[in-house]
Amino acid sequence: MTNLTEVLAPTSPEDAAAAFGDGSGLTVVAGGTIVMPEIKLGRLRPERALYLGRAGLEGIERSDGTVRIGAATPVAALVEGAPEPLATFAAHVGDREVRSQGTLGGNLCAPPAETFSRGDLQAPLLALGARVRSAGSGGERTDSIDDFLAAGPDGRLVLVLEVDEPARAATAAVRRPHAHAYTILAVAVAETAGGLRVAIAGAGPRAVRATAVEQALAGGASPADAAQSALDGVNPQDDALASGNYRRQVLPGLVARALGDLS
Predict the structure, then answer these.
(1) pLDDT in tens, 11-29
(2) Which of 2, 16, 7 is CA-nearest to residue 56?
(3) pLDDT per residue over 158-195, tens digit each?
(4) Domain CATH code at residue 28
(5) Is residue 90, in this structure, part of any structural domain at all?
(6) Domain residue limits at 203
(7) Checking DSSP bridges between strand 195-201 and strand 131-136, what pairing results, if any?
(8) Alpha carbon of 63 to those of 55, 71, 121, 141, 220: distances in Å?
(9) pTM for the full predicted model
(10) Structural domain contains residue 1
């Protein structure tokens, strides 16, 4: 049940930004793979909704080594159209139905569930050094993915994400075999213009950079040696899928595997 009194359905990105305003009192709906179950379970009771299905925020464009991806682009479209490591991560989000409905922006902004983390695509976006164009209080702005995740998505409507094609990329993951596969732990690595970036999904409520690993690599450490720094600044947590201790045991090996698979 809801207390819904108004549904806004903008037909352009500009209209979507205007309708969002500062986001106060609005529930944003794109694919609905997170919002609708939350409503059904009574954990979310929206009064006003902003539906983005007709807002023109979908699509992938490439130009001069830069990839622009609309926030409402289905996760399924990323599997074939996005650069690595984003494409591989997208291929393991949920199942076919979830990937066909869920969107890049929705996954990026997904809050953690009560018993496990969500937002698997945060890690490859961190590895790629994505830039996030959003609207909200003060108008439109572009933030680094690091700054966007640190501040949190509240009060911002994601419009477009930009990434540069990496020179190399790789992934490694431990997953739970299930129809709606949730990530226990996953590592994304990409070589960007700024160097190698390493990010981890599943260690906590949101993805994090493995900056100690990056610094070790920049200092000349071998991939195997650098991977031993994976737990510096990263504190894997317990949840319904795995214990923090298990994740701590597995993480250095996953990082080493991903670094070894760079191509």
Answers:
(1) 999 999 999 999 999 999 9
(2) 16
(3) 999 999 999 999 999 997 665 456 788 999 999 999 89
(4) 3.30.465.10
(5) yes
(6) 6-260
(7) unpaired
(8) 22, 18, 22, 21, 33
(9) 0.93
(10) no
